Amino acid sequence: MYHTFILPDAEQVIREHGEKDFPDECVGFLYGTDSAGERIIRQAIPIKNSKEGDKRRRFEISPLDYMRAETYALTHQTTLLGVYHSHPQHPAIPSEHDLKQALPFFSYIILSVLDQKADIIRSWRLNEASHSFEEEPLAIYAAL
Amino acid sequence: MATLIIPTPLRKYTEDQATFSTGAITVNDAIQELTEIYPNIANHILDGNGKVRSFIKIFVGEDDIRSLDGGETVLEDNAVVSIVPAIAGGMSDMYQKIMLWR
Fold first, then answer.
1. Is A144's pLDDT higher than 90?
2. Which of B55, B67, B82 shows the shortest CA–CA distance to A72?
3. pTM, whole model, 2 decimals?
4. Contact across the interface for B87 and A60, Cβ inside 8 Å
5. FRET label pair with A125: which of A3, A93, B57, B77, CA 20 to 30 Å apart?
6. Among A57, A63, A80, whose Cβ lies nearest the Cβ of B59?
């Protein structure tokens, strides 16, 4: 099982973004470190939902934004670890649309936003063998 | 030399290397060189005909090669080539129907 942690500030960015963009789906990138099976998400950066059409139930990241995200990671000595997005008015469970485009290695954090209030936040990772999502326990990282 | 940036989801196929340096003249040559050195990445970038898969975009600098000369785009010295996977998703159609019923 994977162990994934998130810094409180990064989690707060996701929650605030989900509430701000409600009833649309928000989306952003996750950065941090990944070593010896321990993943720490240190930064969440909001980006534009590039989906043309109904943003309330779909999100898309433009190729240009993705290219810039990988470049940002290289120039800031960090690693692009995944993507977060919100599910307005429905659970933080990946859908068939999330699975269709899912990539290995990435953490997919989903925030449920109910009546404009950030609710449950959960993280998922693709199991390549079964081509299904597995939940990865997400804990708040508290530096000692 | 040009530099290819490998997206993190594909780095398991490049022995965790984030970048790949190449003296290739064109984008196609650079990708061919990459897949020769790291054969396991080929299937994730190219289709059975050796063409870049539809859900992968290739950028040189900030330009999608489709707006340049495609795979024949010439790589100038210090060019940065990015391999960009598609990222999209959204809520389940099933939940969407439930919401409409409410």
1. no
2. B82
3. 0.92
4. yes
5. B57
6. A63
